[in-house]
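Summary for the steering committee. The consortium agreed at its last meeting that each partner would contribute one worked example illustrating the joint modelling workflow. Our contribution is presented below. We chose a case with several input lines so that the handling of multiple components could be demonstrated. No manual editing was applied between input and output; the record is shown as generated.
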Amino acid sequence: MVSFFTAIGGFFVALWSILTSFLPFCLIDISVEPAVFECGNDNYCIVWETSTKGSGYVEYTYNGEEKVVWDERSGVIRTDDTVHKVVVPKEEIQGNAYKVGSQYVGFKYGYSASKGQTVESEEYNFNGVPKDDDIKILCISDIHYMEKEMYESLEYFTEKPDLIAYLGDVTSDLITKDQFADYILKDAHDLSGGEIPVIYTRGNHETRGEFASQIIDYFAMETNEFYYTFEFGPLSAIVLDSGEDKEDDHQEYSGLVDFAGYREQEYKWLNSLEKSEFADSKYKITFSHNPVLNNHFGKDWTAPLKNLDMDLIVGGHYHKSEFKDGELPVFIDCGKNKNAAGTWAASMMTLKDGKIHMLTIDNSGNVLLDKTIDA
Ligand SMILES: [Fe+2]
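What follows is the complete predicted structure of the assembly.
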């Protein structure tokens, strides 16, 4: 009798799966196309959003072999989310084509699942191939919902970047997952076309709101935190997470942050980095949303960075364009410009012939900064 009911149950589940493939509420779309994020030396993570929950996979061909890499945890494919993250080895995707796909999954039962439509993206030709020199990094900080002005400013940069430095404060808070997908992911895709690696640097505004503690789940940094290192040809980079910009007991945080503990852990990690890891690199750059770190909550974070022979710290946060010279120079990219209301500026950094060139242009074509330093 048990096997009879099991068979009947299996029949109805199979029938349900066939029917749901055609039902409107079992359809699925890609609502935010993929972006490829730096997360260390070995892997990239590819992130996209679908209109309803379901599975996620990335497909490409490597060494003649067709590969499918799933969004999974400990062997179980994730099906209960609309945002999908797949971690792929850098060497397999650099200079290669890939596409992402998702299938609607209504529910996973103990012994079966109700599934619906499968959707796949177009094929993206990912670059990410490190060059020997002449590396162009598009710097985007503090968008704060000024996408229109951002794209106006990008009209003044004609050369295609090799990397996007996505320097934080894309949003002004992160209360919902939709904000994360519709701004952080969507802007990352629109800026990179899914074909250029994006260096995500968390902004202080992205630590605020109900959803803020969850965004780490959608990245795959080697440290499992927002601070990490990576190499790109002759560039060695440190990405720091400057966290919140005020003490933990500030009333804005309602007693619900512990950046004191987080900073301590990050500072310890920074001090654990070995000079030899960076020794062979022609260009050594630190990315940090707040790049002014000589007195970062009572500690001089530039001391370990100087020990690692960093050439420059790049960030945003101050809503102005500025270059601070010194033993370890600081380049403040602009974004939303507090000195001219309604204006917004992006920057292009060019690493070439042992020099770092920084060029900042606003959405009216005004050059706010044009500076070259030796690396
Ligand atoms: Fe900001």
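The mean pLDDT is 94. Residues 2-36+43-125 form a domain with the Immunoglobulin-like fold (CATH 2.60.40).
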